[in-house]
Amino acid sequence: PNYGWPCMEGPEPMPGFAALNLQLCKDLPLASLTPPQYSYRHRVPLPGVPESEASLCDAPEASPTGLLFYTGYPAAWKNTMFLVEGSKRCVFYFERQNGTSGEPDMTKLRTFMYNPDVLPTGQKEGQYVDIQQGPNGEIYVIDIYFGKVFKITYIGAGAQVQKATESQAHSYHLFSVAVALVASIAFFALQ
């Protein structure tokens, strides 16, 4: 499918490329483009996030950096689509249509994991950039800013939602999960 990149950003023309007046973008057959299933703009709240959660991930910029369509155990997460938003420092999930067996409902985005810590500059710490499913059903989230990998494990329906501790990387969750820091990654510049 053709989503129109780099001339299009979501359903709208990409401002930076539109200003260049490129032939590539002029010749793009808009009627043949595949529209996005979900899109959002910079500097506005994410569509589908409840008001009660909107302030948790309210950074003005937008950068979707990872998607996971979860297929493992437990049933509470099966067929759930997770979205990592790097600029907003959050992981979201789409509620499912028709309960646990339905497809993701693109109108109902919920906060799964967020970072409440704020630096002296007013910026929030960390930046989640990817999400993957492990072989035993765990979910792994990568924080590139701190070079850490977090393992998220379901702990059961009705369990008390846990606030992560300092050793668990300053992340809070609105889901019944246990979080563990499984790796710290060092990045080196080659000279």
Broad shape: globular
User: What structural class do the secondary elements suggest?
Assistant: mainly beta
Q: Give the end-to-end Cα distance, rounded to a whole number of Å.
A: 40 Å
Helices and strands, in order, run as EEHHHEEEEEEEEE
Q: Care to count the β-strands? A: 11
Helix content estimate: under 10%
Keywords: Membrane, Transmembrane, Transmembrane helix
Protein name: Glucose/Sorbosone dehydrogenase domain-containing protein
Organism: Spongospora subterranea
Transmembrane segments: 172-190
Descriptive account of the structure:
It is a single chain. This protein is mainly beta and 191 residues long. It folds into 2 domains: 1-36, no CATH class; 44-184, no CATH class. It is built from 3 helices and 11 strands, in the order E-E-H-H-H-E-E-E-E-E-E-E-E-E. The strands form 3 sheets. It has a 5-stranded antiparallel β-sheet with strand order 3-4-5-6-10, with no helix packed on it. Strands 7-8-9-11 form a 4-stranded antiparallel β-sheet, with no helix packed on it. The N and C termini lie far apart (40 Å). The chain crosses the membrane at residues 172-190.
